[in-house]
Amino acid sequence: MTTPHPPAGSPQNDPAPASGAGTPATGAGSGRSGYLYRKVALHLADYPDQILKVGEITRAIGAPSSGAVFEALKKMAAAGHATHHRNPHRFQITQAGIDAAGALPPAAPRTRSSGSSGGGGRQSRPAPVPRPNGTLYHPRRLGKGWDVEELRRLRTQQVPVLLYGPPGTGKTAMVEAAFPDLLTVAGTGDTVVDDFLGSYNPVPGGGYEFVHGPLVTAMRQGRVLLVDDATLIPPRVLAVLYPAMDGRGTVTIPAHGNETVQAVDGFYIVAGHNPGVHGAVLTEALASRFTVHLHVTTDWDLARQLGVPKPVVAAAIDLNADLAAGTTVWAPQLRELLGFVTVRDQLGMSAALANLAGIAPQDARDDVTAALSRHTGTPITALALGKR
Protein backbone atom coordinates (compact mmCIF):
# COMPACT_ATOMS: atom_id res chain seq x y z
CA MET A 1 0.00 0.00 0.00
CA THR A 2 1.18 3.52 -0.71
CA THR A 3 -0.14 6.61 1.01
CA PRO A 4 0.88 10.24 0.71
CA HIS A 5 2.74 11.66 3.70
CA PRO A 6 1.41 11.82 6.34
CA PRO A 7 0.01 8.27 5.97
CA ALA A 8 -3.70 7.91 6.39
CA GLY A 9 -5.40 5.43 8.66
CA SER A 10 -7.36 2.53 7.26
CA PRO A 11 -10.84 0.96 7.18
CA GLN A 12 -12.08 -2.17 8.84
CA ASN A 13 -15.63 -3.33 9.95
CA ASP A 14 -19.27 -3.19 8.95
CA PRO A 15 -22.40 -5.40 8.98
CA ALA A 16 -23.07 -7.99 6.33
CA PRO A 17 -25.57 -7.62 3.50
CA ALA A 18 -28.20 -10.31 3.26
CA SER A 19 -27.43 -12.85 0.60
CA GLY A 20 -28.91 -12.23 -2.81
CA ALA A 21 -30.65 -8.95 -2.09
CA GLY A 22 -27.49 -6.93 -1.57
CA THR A 23 -28.93 -5.19 1.49
CA PRO A 24 -27.53 -5.40 5.02
CA ALA A 25 -28.90 -8.12 7.26
CA THR A 26 -30.66 -7.67 10.59
CA GLY A 27 -32.81 -4.76 9.60
CA ALA A 28 -29.99 -2.63 8.28
CA GLY A 29 -31.31 -2.58 4.74
CA SER A 30 -33.97 0.11 5.20
CA GLY A 31 -34.43 3.40 6.96
CA ARG A 32 -31.73 5.55 8.46
CA SER A 33 -29.71 2.58 9.81
CA GLY A 34 -29.51 1.05 6.31
CA TYR A 35 -28.47 4.39 4.85
CA LEU A 36 -25.66 4.71 7.38
CA TYR A 37 -24.61 1.10 6.92
CA ARG A 38 -24.25 1.55 3.18
CA LYS A 39 -22.20 4.72 3.61
CA VAL A 40 -19.86 3.02 6.08
CA ALA A 41 -19.47 -0.14 4.00
CA LEU A 42 -18.90 1.69 0.74
CA HIS A 43 -16.42 4.06 2.35
CA LEU A 44 -14.41 1.17 3.76
CA ALA A 45 -14.47 -0.55 0.38
CA ASP A 46 -12.84 2.55 -1.12
CA TYR A 47 -9.90 2.13 1.28
CA PRO A 48 -9.30 -1.64 1.37
CA ASP A 49 -5.67 -1.38 2.45
CA GLN A 50 -6.17 0.99 5.37
CA ILE A 51 -7.04 0.56 9.04
CA LEU A 52 -9.33 3.46 9.96
CA LYS A 53 -10.37 4.92 13.27
CA VAL A 54 -14.06 5.37 14.02
CA GLY A 55 -13.71 9.15 14.12
CA GLU A 56 -11.98 9.21 10.73
CA ILE A 57 -14.83 7.25 9.16
CA THR A 58 -17.46 9.40 10.86
CA ARG A 59 -15.93 12.62 9.52
CA ALA A 60 -15.33 11.20 6.05
CA ILE A 61 -18.95 10.16 5.49
CA GLY A 62 -20.45 13.14 7.32
CA ALA A 63 -22.29 11.00 9.88
CA PRO A 64 -23.82 12.88 12.84
CA SER A 65 -22.85 10.27 15.44
CA SER A 66 -19.62 8.33 15.88
CA GLY A 67 -21.51 5.97 18.20
CA ALA A 68 -23.84 4.92 15.40
CA VAL A 69 -20.89 4.43 13.07
CA PHE A 70 -19.15 2.34 15.72
CA GLU A 71 -22.20 0.09 16.05
CA ALA A 72 -22.28 -0.43 12.27
CA LEU A 73 -18.59 -1.26 12.31
CA LYS A 74 -19.02 -3.81 15.10
CA LYS A 75 -21.77 -5.51 13.10
CA MET A 76 -19.47 -5.68 10.11
CA ALA A 77 -16.77 -7.26 12.26
CA ALA A 78 -19.22 -9.82 13.67
CA ALA A 79 -20.23 -10.74 10.12
CA GLY A 80 -16.62 -11.25 9.05
CA HIS A 81 -16.76 -8.25 6.72
CA ALA A 82 -14.16 -6.30 8.66
CA THR A 83 -11.45 -6.83 11.22
CA HIS A 84 -11.54 -4.98 14.52
CA HIS A 85 -8.31 -3.64 16.04
CA ARG A 86 -8.51 -2.34 19.60
CA ASN A 87 -6.72 0.28 21.69
CA PRO A 88 -7.78 2.40 19.88
CA HIS A 89 -10.75 0.95 17.99
CA ARG A 90 -9.86 0.72 14.30
CA PHE A 91 -11.38 -1.22 11.43
CA GLN A 92 -10.32 -2.63 8.07
CA ILE A 93 -12.55 -4.21 5.47
CA THR A 94 -12.00 -7.86 4.55
CA GLN A 95 -12.29 -9.41 1.08
CA ALA A 96 -15.73 -10.72 2.06
CA GLY A 97 -16.68 -7.19 3.04
CA ILE A 98 -15.41 -5.83 -0.26
CA ASP A 99 -17.49 -8.40 -2.15
CA ALA A 100 -20.56 -7.59 -0.05
CA ALA A 101 -20.10 -3.84 -0.48
CA GLY A 102 -20.04 -4.34 -4.24
CA ALA A 103 -23.57 -5.76 -4.01
CA LEU A 104 -24.98 -2.83 -2.01
CA PRO A 105 -27.45 -0.50 -3.73
CA PRO A 106 -26.00 2.98 -4.32
CA ALA A 107 -28.74 4.70 -2.30
CA ALA A 108 -26.29 6.71 -0.22
CA PRO A 109 -23.94 9.25 -1.74
CA ARG A 110 -20.41 7.91 -1.63
CA THR A 111 -17.32 9.68 -0.40
CA ARG A 112 -14.56 8.71 -2.82
CA SER A 113 -11.60 10.97 -2.28
CA SER A 114 -9.28 8.27 -3.58
CA GLY A 115 -9.48 5.13 -5.63
CA SER A 116 -12.65 6.22 -7.44
CA SER A 117 -13.37 4.86 -10.87
CA GLY A 118 -15.85 7.65 -11.50
CA GLY A 119 -18.43 5.11 -12.63
CA GLY A 120 -19.92 4.04 -9.30
CA GLY A 121 -17.94 0.81 -8.85
CA ARG A 122 -14.53 0.11 -7.38
CA GLN A 123 -11.66 0.04 -9.81
CA SER A 124 -10.31 -3.42 -10.40
CA ARG A 125 -6.61 -3.87 -9.78
CA PRO A 126 -4.61 -3.33 -13.00
CA ALA A 127 -2.72 -6.19 -14.59
CA PRO A 128 0.66 -7.01 -13.01
CA VAL A 129 3.64 -5.11 -14.41
CA PRO A 130 6.85 -6.99 -15.27
CA ARG A 131 10.06 -5.98 -13.51
CA PRO A 132 13.54 -6.23 -15.08
CA ASN A 133 14.21 -9.54 -13.30
CA GLY A 134 11.10 -11.07 -14.87
CA THR A 135 8.94 -11.11 -11.73
CA LEU A 136 5.59 -9.35 -11.72
CA TYR A 137 4.65 -6.32 -9.64
CA HIS A 138 1.02 -5.93 -8.57
CA PRO A 139 0.05 -2.22 -8.53
CA ARG A 140 -1.38 -0.71 -5.36
CA ARG A 141 -3.75 2.19 -4.80
CA LEU A 142 -2.24 5.66 -4.57
CA GLY A 143 -4.34 8.82 -4.49
CA LYS A 144 -6.94 8.67 -7.25
CA GLY A 145 -5.21 5.91 -9.16
CA TRP A 146 -2.51 3.26 -8.91
CA ASP A 147 1.05 3.67 -7.74
CA VAL A 148 2.80 2.83 -11.01
CA GLU A 149 0.61 5.25 -12.97
CA GLU A 150 0.96 8.00 -10.36
CA LEU A 151 4.74 7.71 -10.20
CA ARG A 152 4.91 8.08 -13.98
CA ARG A 153 2.67 11.14 -13.80
CA LEU A 154 4.85 12.70 -11.09
CA ARG A 155 7.86 12.14 -13.32
CA THR A 156 6.28 14.06 -16.19
CA GLN A 157 5.60 16.92 -13.76
CA GLN A 158 9.12 16.74 -12.34
CA VAL A 159 7.92 16.19 -8.77
CA PRO A 160 10.64 14.27 -6.86
CA VAL A 161 9.43 11.42 -4.64
CA LEU A 162 10.91 9.96 -1.45
CA LEU A 163 9.56 6.49 -0.63
CA TYR A 164 9.79 5.44 3.01
CA GLY A 165 8.69 2.44 5.00
CA PRO A 166 9.95 -0.83 6.48
CA PRO A 167 12.24 -3.05 4.40
CA GLY A 168 10.34 -5.62 2.37
CA THR A 169 7.25 -3.54 1.56
CA GLY A 170 8.06 -3.30 -2.15
CA LYS A 171 9.50 0.19 -2.57
CA THR A 172 12.19 -0.88 -5.03
CA ALA A 173 9.83 -3.23 -6.88
CA MET A 174 7.35 -0.39 -7.36
CA VAL A 175 9.95 1.91 -8.91
CA GLU A 176 11.31 -0.84 -11.15
CA ALA A 177 7.79 -1.55 -12.42
CA ALA A 178 7.05 2.13 -13.00
CA PHE A 179 10.25 2.98 -14.88
CA PRO A 180 11.74 0.49 -17.36
CA ASP A 181 14.59 2.96 -18.02
CA LEU A 182 15.67 2.88 -14.37
CA LEU A 183 19.25 3.16 -13.12
CA THR A 184 19.97 2.42 -9.45
CA VAL A 185 22.54 3.40 -6.84
CA ALA A 186 22.31 1.10 -3.81
CA GLY A 187 23.21 3.28 -0.84
CA THR A 188 25.45 2.18 2.02
CA GLY A 189 27.67 3.92 4.52
CA ASP A 190 30.55 3.33 2.10
CA THR A 191 28.93 5.00 -0.93
CA VAL A 192 31.15 7.77 -2.33
CA VAL A 193 30.73 10.58 -4.86
CA ASP A 194 32.41 8.48 -7.55
CA ASP A 195 29.55 5.99 -7.30
CA PHE A 196 27.32 8.74 -8.72
CA LEU A 197 29.64 10.68 -11.02
CA GLY A 198 32.07 8.04 -12.24
CA SER A 199 35.78 7.24 -11.94
CA TYR A 200 38.86 6.20 -13.86
CA ASN A 201 39.04 2.49 -14.60
CA PRO A 202 42.00 0.50 -15.97
CA VAL A 203 41.80 -0.58 -19.61
CA PRO A 204 43.42 -3.59 -21.33
CA GLY A 205 46.98 -2.83 -22.42
CA GLY A 206 47.55 -0.29 -19.68
CA GLY A 207 46.27 3.14 -18.84
CA TYR A 208 42.93 4.38 -17.57
CA GLU A 209 39.73 5.78 -18.98
CA PHE A 210 36.98 7.72 -17.26
CA VAL A 211 33.67 5.85 -16.96
CA HIS A 212 30.71 8.06 -16.15
CA GLY A 213 28.49 7.00 -13.27
CA PRO A 214 24.74 6.37 -13.16
CA LEU A 215 23.82 9.94 -12.19
CA VAL A 216 25.61 11.32 -15.25
CA THR A 217 24.16 8.62 -17.50
CA ALA A 218 20.62 9.28 -16.26
CA MET A 219 21.03 13.03 -16.80
CA ARG A 220 22.40 12.67 -20.34
CA GLN A 221 19.91 10.01 -21.44
CA GLY A 222 16.84 11.40 -19.69
CA ARG A 223 16.43 8.36 -17.46
CA VAL A 224 15.26 7.73 -13.90
CA LEU A 225 17.77 7.35 -11.08
CA LEU A 226 16.71 5.48 -7.94
CA VAL A 227 18.87 6.19 -4.91
CA ASP A 228 17.97 3.16 -2.82
CA ASP A 229 18.58 3.36 0.93
CA ALA A 230 19.54 6.97 0.40
CA THR A 231 19.60 7.74 4.10
CA LEU A 232 22.47 5.31 4.65
CA ILE A 233 24.68 7.43 2.40
CA PRO A 234 26.78 10.12 4.15
CA PRO A 235 25.10 13.54 3.74
CA ARG A 236 28.23 15.10 2.20
CA VAL A 237 28.07 12.46 -0.56
CA LEU A 238 24.35 12.94 -1.17
CA ALA A 239 25.02 16.63 -1.76
CA VAL A 240 26.22 15.67 -5.25
CA LEU A 241 22.55 15.20 -6.20
CA TYR A 242 21.31 18.61 -5.21
CA PRO A 243 22.51 20.71 -8.19
CA ALA A 244 20.93 18.14 -10.50
CA MET A 245 17.58 18.37 -8.68
CA ASP A 246 17.20 22.13 -8.43
CA GLY A 247 16.62 24.66 -11.19
CA ARG A 248 20.17 24.33 -12.50
CA GLY A 249 19.86 20.69 -13.54
CA THR A 250 23.63 20.36 -13.75
CA VAL A 251 26.53 18.61 -12.06
CA THR A 252 30.26 19.17 -12.28
CA ILE A 253 32.77 16.29 -12.32
CA PRO A 254 35.98 17.49 -10.64
CA ALA A 255 37.82 14.24 -11.36
CA HIS A 256 37.23 14.68 -15.10
CA GLY A 257 38.52 18.18 -15.67
CA ASN A 258 35.51 19.85 -14.04
CA GLU A 259 33.30 18.55 -16.82
CA THR A 260 29.78 19.99 -16.62
CA VAL A 261 26.78 17.78 -17.36
CA GLN A 262 23.35 19.20 -18.17
CA ALA A 263 20.21 17.13 -17.59
CA VAL A 264 17.92 16.51 -20.55
CA ASP A 265 14.15 16.03 -20.53
CA GLY A 266 13.02 12.86 -18.78
CA PHE A 267 15.71 12.89 -16.10
CA TYR A 268 14.16 12.15 -12.73
CA ILE A 269 15.28 11.12 -9.24
CA VAL A 270 13.48 8.86 -6.76
CA ALA A 271 14.90 7.94 -3.35
CA GLY A 272 14.15 5.23 -0.81
CA HIS A 273 14.38 5.44 2.98
CA ASN A 274 13.96 2.71 5.61
CA PRO A 275 13.17 4.45 8.91
CA GLY A 276 14.49 2.65 11.95
CA VAL A 277 17.30 0.89 10.10
CA HIS A 278 20.59 1.35 11.94
CA GLY A 279 22.55 4.22 10.43
CA ALA A 280 19.66 5.67 8.39
CA VAL A 281 19.54 9.46 8.79
CA LEU A 282 16.98 11.57 6.93
CA THR A 283 18.52 15.03 6.92
CA GLU A 284 16.51 18.19 6.38
CA ALA A 285 18.57 18.92 3.27
CA LEU A 286 17.58 15.60 1.72
CA ALA A 287 13.94 15.66 2.83
CA SER A 288 13.41 19.17 1.48
CA ARG A 289 14.57 18.13 -2.01
CA PHE A 290 11.65 15.72 -2.36
CA THR A 291 8.27 17.36 -2.76
CA VAL A 292 6.30 14.16 -2.15
CA HIS A 293 6.98 11.71 0.67
CA LEU A 294 5.13 8.40 0.17
CA HIS A 295 4.68 5.97 3.02
CA VAL A 296 4.88 2.44 1.58
CA THR A 297 3.38 -0.34 3.68
CA THR A 298 2.42 -3.92 2.97
CA ASP A 299 -0.74 -4.44 0.92
CA TRP A 300 -2.60 -6.99 3.03
CA ASP A 301 -5.33 -7.56 0.47
CA LEU A 302 -2.68 -8.34 -2.14
CA ALA A 303 -0.96 -10.72 0.28
CA ARG A 304 -4.20 -12.66 0.65
CA GLN A 305 -4.71 -12.70 -3.12
CA LEU A 306 -1.21 -14.11 -3.58
CA GLY A 307 -1.95 -17.06 -1.34
CA VAL A 308 -0.89 -15.98 2.14
CA PRO A 309 -3.36 -17.61 4.59
CA LYS A 310 -5.74 -15.17 6.26
CA PRO A 311 -4.64 -16.10 9.82
CA VAL A 312 -1.02 -15.38 8.91
CA VAL A 313 -2.01 -12.03 7.38
CA ALA A 314 -4.00 -11.22 10.52
CA ALA A 315 -0.96 -12.00 12.68
CA ALA A 316 1.21 -9.78 10.46
CA ILE A 317 -1.29 -6.93 10.74
CA ASP A 318 -1.25 -7.18 14.54
CA LEU A 319 2.55 -7.27 14.61
CA ASN A 320 2.76 -4.20 12.38
CA ALA A 321 0.37 -2.36 14.71
CA ASP A 322 2.66 -3.31 17.61
CA LEU A 323 5.67 -2.14 15.60
CA ALA A 324 4.00 1.23 15.01
CA ALA A 325 3.20 1.45 18.73
CA GLY A 326 6.78 0.64 19.66
CA THR A 327 5.91 -2.55 21.55
CA THR A 328 7.90 -4.80 19.20
CA VAL A 329 10.94 -4.23 17.01
CA TRP A 330 10.04 -6.21 13.89
CA ALA A 331 7.03 -7.29 11.87
CA PRO A 332 6.80 -9.32 8.64
CA GLN A 333 6.14 -7.43 5.42
CA LEU A 334 5.09 -8.62 1.97
CA ARG A 335 8.56 -9.97 1.17
CA GLU A 336 8.52 -12.26 4.21
CA LEU A 337 4.89 -13.27 3.63
CA LEU A 338 5.60 -14.31 0.04
CA GLY A 339 8.61 -16.21 1.32
CA PHE A 340 6.22 -17.93 3.74
CA VAL A 341 4.10 -19.11 0.80
CA THR A 342 7.17 -20.51 -0.96
CA VAL A 343 8.29 -22.44 2.15
CA ARG A 344 4.75 -23.72 2.77
CA ASP A 345 4.51 -25.03 -0.79
CA GLN A 346 7.85 -26.82 -0.42
CA LEU A 347 7.94 -27.95 3.23
CA GLY A 348 4.38 -27.64 4.52
CA MET A 349 2.44 -25.30 6.78
CA SER A 350 4.13 -26.19 10.06
CA ALA A 351 7.61 -25.64 8.66
CA ALA A 352 6.55 -22.37 7.06
CA LEU A 353 5.20 -21.03 10.36
CA ALA A 354 8.34 -22.13 12.18
CA ASN A 355 10.51 -20.50 9.52
CA LEU A 356 8.60 -17.21 9.68
CA ALA A 357 9.19 -17.16 13.44
CA GLY A 358 12.81 -18.13 12.93
CA ILE A 359 13.66 -15.29 10.54
CA ALA A 360 12.47 -12.69 13.05
CA PRO A 361 15.23 -10.90 14.99
CA GLN A 362 15.95 -12.56 18.31
CA ASP A 363 14.40 -9.74 20.35
CA ALA A 364 11.14 -9.94 18.36
CA ARG A 365 10.90 -13.71 17.99
CA ASP A 366 8.69 -14.27 21.03
CA ASP A 367 6.27 -11.59 19.80
CA VAL A 368 6.10 -13.13 16.31
CA THR A 369 5.68 -16.65 17.67
CA ALA A 370 2.88 -15.55 20.00
CA ALA A 371 0.99 -13.70 17.25
CA LEU A 372 1.26 -16.59 14.79
CA SER A 373 0.18 -19.10 17.44
CA ARG A 374 -2.74 -16.92 18.51
CA HIS A 375 -4.14 -16.51 14.99
CA THR A 376 -3.43 -19.98 13.60
CA GLY A 377 -4.12 -21.98 16.76
CA THR A 378 -0.85 -23.83 16.22
CA PRO A 379 2.00 -24.13 18.75
CA ILE A 380 5.08 -22.74 17.00
CA THR A 381 8.80 -22.87 17.63
CA ALA A 382 11.48 -21.42 15.38
CA LEU A 383 12.62 -23.79 12.65
CA ALA A 384 15.80 -25.67 13.65
CA LEU A 385 17.66 -28.88 12.92
CA GLY A 386 17.67 -31.53 15.63
CA LYS A 387 20.67 -33.17 17.21
CA ARG A 388 22.67 -35.71 15.24
From TrEMBL:
Residues 15-27 have a biased composition (Low complexity). GO terms for molecular function: ATP binding; ATP hydrolysis activity. Pfam families: AAA_5. The lineage of its organism: Bacteria, Bacillati, Actinomycetota, Actinomycetes, Micromonosporales. Residues 1-30, 102-141 are annotated as: Disordered. It comes from the Bacteria. InterPro entries: ATPase_dyneun-rel_AAA, CbbQ/NirQ/NorQ/GpvN, P-loop_NTPase. It comes from Micromonospora aurantiaca (nom. illeg.). Residues 160-290 form the ATPase dynein-related AAA domain. SUPFAM superfamilies: P-loop containing nucleoside triphosphate hydrolases (SSF52540). This is ATPase.
